Each structure stands twice: as structure tokens, then as C-alpha cells.
Amino acid sequence: MVKVLEHSRVSPPRGAVTEKSLVLTCFDLPWIHTFPPQSFILFYEFPHSSSHFLEILVPDLKNSLSLALKHFFPLSGNLILPSDPTSSMPTLSYVEGDSVQVIFAECVNHNFTDLIGNHARNAGPFHSLVPQLSPVTRTPDSTIVPIFAIQVTLFPDSGVSVGFTKDHVLCDASTIFDFMKAWGLITKSRGENMIFASGCLPFYDRTTIRDTTEEQETSLWRVVGKIKRQDYQAPSFPADLVRSTFVITRNDIQRLKNMASGAERVSSFVVVCAYMWTCLAKCYAAFNEALHEDDVEHMSFVVNCRARLDPPLPKTYFGNCLAPCLPTIRSAILLGPDGFLTASRLIGQTIGMKLRGVLNFSVNDLSDFEARSGQRMLGVAGSPKFNFYEIDFGWGTPKKYEVVSRNYSGTMSLMGCKDSDGGLEIGLSLPNFKMDAFTAIFFDGLKHHIP
Q1: Buried/exposed 108-129: b ≥16 CB within 10 Å, e otherwise
Q2: According to DSSP H, which parts of 169-213 are helical?
Q3: CA-to-CA distance for 92 and 147, rounded, in angstroms?
Q4: pLDDT tens track, the chain, 451 positions
Q5: Which helix (H) or strand (E) holds 14?
Q6: d(CA 407, CA 36)
Q7: Is 168 among the residues known to form the active site?
Q8: Distances (CA, A) of 79 to 131, 170, 281
Q9: What does the longest C-alpha to C-alpha distance in the chain come to?
Q10: Of the listed 60, 365, 368, 392, which one is catalytic?
Q11: Where are the extended beta strands (E) located within 12-77?
């Protein structure tokens, strides 16, 4: 059980940020109606009492968060969606007094050590450690959408978790990683000085995106804006759903790369995604859930485009700058003896084609996603490039990073590994009986079928 100790609202320091708004770009607009919101947690060792938490940690975190929001002000604001999509563009808006919802809580019946393990764990408790976004507000002229919330939960005398929930239209993983890093540095150093040399301060100038026109953005908004924004209701998930973390070492990754040497892009991301795709297909087949041989399996992931634009955007550009990739393969091929190699080639080719035409998406890609609705798709969240295990609030580095929202969305998470130089962590949620089968397939493949 999680007991709420305090509901807070935290704003940037008064007068530190003038009223500001950011007009959504072609990279933001496709995410307006994307659910579920993204939720993730950092777990830290924290062997302190409830009184220490409330008297020392809570005030420190609220103060440092306020300073971080001075630089990342859109997190305090709201998404403003005009009721008439022909009247104006949607914006991320901040006005004096806007704030982030922050919950401070205490967990009294979940074992901290169990939650930070890699083994199969009940998925349910993780949802109590991340906040829900506040409800939307509707006026005659617009819909006002809260887009960010935080929950800090104490496990008395053992640990603390910091949970985040954000609407994807706010920003992508690159931006939220920079925010988390900045907040951690401010908390640890008890001031802002360290963040100026950290390379994580956001860049806001959207006029530097020169490859899109105002007409393209307006056209996309008129398509997206016709869909009424709904209040999000979290779907139910099976009571026996479990979460597991699979560690794949640098040596294993190199062996996979050797097998996929004919692919266009033989990166760690490509070969790990291809291997997971084939293992999942085999897992489904083991329970007579294999698709018809002529049916297709889908994958979805995104690539960071900041460095691919002309001119390139700084890596700290605030917002979304992603291109969606949607490779598709016949089920019979994925399950066949060359399934891994074919999947590796396909994923690499899809990335190459997307990066050669970064801005050739938007409405067509929305249609592609809709056409795949209800079909089997493996989503991939995260990237080996973001090391969430380096985010330090002064309590040491995290013991575990978990993407909670993958419980709902048929998604695996992928990130650098905390304990392995060059290795990766893969997070997956499945019903318990399927997780047992998947685990056997995953490790058997690495042990016996990869030279």
C-alpha cells in the first residue's frame, strides 16, 4: 500500500520566467493523441526514516525542483489545444503561477529489494509509484491539458523512488533525460552552478527547424485537431502480469552483430531488437498464438533526428525530434531459421530509409499507425544512448530504472546496463506463464544458437 503524505505544487521561482509559449512543430503534433502517458521510475537506496524524509528530503527536493523548472519551464505549464483547429496552432504554454503536481508518499507493504530485481515481479505495485496526470479542463475556446507530474515515494529505512509521468507531446526521452540530470545535479550540489557546465540546459529556438513550413504544420494540425482529446483512462491488465529485466552483455551483443554482418546497420539497437522480436514470436508460437504464415508481425520505434536536420539541432533541443519507424515482416519468415538475420536487415534498412528522408512523415505515418491498430506489434521504448543510471540526487546512482507504461502498450524498454560495460538492459512485461517460456527461449538462444 502507498500512503500519500503530501500533495504539492511546485513552480519556478517567482519572477524567474516570463509568460512563454512554444508552438508545436511537425515533430510534436503526431503525439497529441498518443496514449498511454509515459511513466518511469528511478529507485535509489535511502536508509532513512519517515521523519528524515519529511523534514529534510522533501524541502530539499521542492527547492531544487523549483530551480530546475526555471530552466525547463514548459514542464510546469500546459498543452493548449484550440477548439477550432482552423483558428490557431496548439501550444505548450507557461504563465506565472503554473506548477508541477508533486506527490510525496510512503510505501509500507512492498519490498524494495524485490522491486529493484531483474527477476519476474508482479507488475501491479509499480503503478502505485508513478503519478496520474491531472484531468483536462475545457473552455469554449480550448482544451487545457496538464502534461507532467512527479511522485517521490519513501520505503522506510531502505529506499526511495522518484516516479515521473509525462504526455509525449511535451518532449521526447532526450529532453526528459536532460531535465532529470539537471534536477539531480541541482539537488546534489545544493545550487545551480554545476548545471551550466553539464551540457543539459535546454535549447528552445524552434525557428531553427527550417525543413518544415508553416503550411505543413498547419495542414497536419488540421488533421490531428479534428480528433477530440479524451481524458485518459488506464486500461486494465492481467492480474498475473509480471515484469522482468534481461541483461545482454557486450560479448553477447558482439556475437549477435557477427551473425547479422550483412545488415545495412549493425548496431547494438538493431541486433537486440531483432533478437527480441524473434524470441517473442517463438514464445507466442509455443502457446499456439503464431500468426498465419502469410500474416505479418509489426515493430515500432523512433529515431532521434536532431543531428539529421539541415542545419542540425543542438542535442539539447527541447521538445520532440523523432521520426517513427514501422518495420513489418511475414510471421513465417520471423519464425524461420533466418528470422534473426532477416529481422536485423529489415530494421537496419528501415532506419536508413527514415534517416534519408527525416521529414517525409506526419500524416502518412499517422495513417500507418492507425492501419496497424489491433494487430500484433512490438514497440521499443528507450535507447542505449541514454544512461539513466548516471542520474544522482546525492544518494548515489540508481539501483534500478523501470519504464512503467510498457505494462499497457506491448512495449519493451531498452537502455544501458548499470552493471555491465557496453551491455544493455531489456525490460519486458508478459503474463507469468508466458514470461517463463520467453525466459527459456531468450537464454537458450544466447547459449546454444549464436556462434
Answers
A1: eebebeebbeeebbebebbbeb
A2: 173-189
A3: 9
A4: 899 999 999 999 999 998 899 999 989 988 887 767 899 999 999 999 999 999 999 999 999 999 999 999 999 999 999 988 888 999 999 999 999 999 999 998 899 999 999 999 999 999 999 999 999 999 999 999 999 999 999 999 999 999 999 999 999 999 999 999 999 999 999 998 888 888 899 999 998 887 666 777 888 887 777 776 666 666 677 788 999 999 999 999 999 999 998 777 789 999 999 999 999 999 999 988 766 767 889 999 999 999 988 889 999 999 999 988 999 999 999 999 999 999 999 999 999 888 776 665 555 565 566 656 667 889 999 988 888 999 999 999 999 999 998 877 678 999 999 876 789 999 999 999 999 999 999 999 999 777 7
A5: none
A6: 10
A7: yes
A8: 18, 8, 38
A9: 64
A10: 392
A11: 20-23, 38-46
Cell of 43: 529507485
C-alpha cell at 419: 552493471
173-189 vs 58-71: helix crossing angle, rounded to 10: 130
- Which set of grid coordinates corresponds to residue 376? 500484433
Q: Which residue has the cell 560495460?
A: 421
Annotated active-site residue in 110, 168, 172, 298: 168
SS3 426: strand
Query: Which whole-number Å values give the CA distances from 310 to 122, 171, 175, 212, 304, in the listed order?
Result: 46, 21, 20, 11, 14
Q: Is the pTM of this model over 0.85?
A: yes
Q: How far is CA 192 from CA 135, 195, 198, 317, in A?
A: 32, 6, 11, 20
Record the cell numbers describing residue 19, joined without a space: 509568460
Q: Which domains does the chain have, with CATH numbers?
A: 2-224 (3.30.559.10), 241-448 (3.30.559.10)
The three three-digit cell numbers of residue 54, written as one number: 519529511
DSSP string, 118-134: SS-EESHHHHTTSPPPP
Helix, strand and coil percent figures for the chain, each rounded to 5 = 35, 25, 40
User: Which amino acid makes up residue 250?
Assistant: R
Alpha-helix residue ranges (DSSP H) falling in 295-431: 331-335, 339-356, 363-371, 406-409
Task: Quote the DSSP letter at residue 12.
Answer: S
Start-to-end C-alpha separation, the chain: 47
Q: How many residues in total does the chain contain?
A: 451
C-alpha grid cell, residue 141: 475556446
Alpha-carbon gap, residue 379 to 279, rounded angstroms? 14
How many Cα neighbours within 13 Å face the side chain of 339? 23
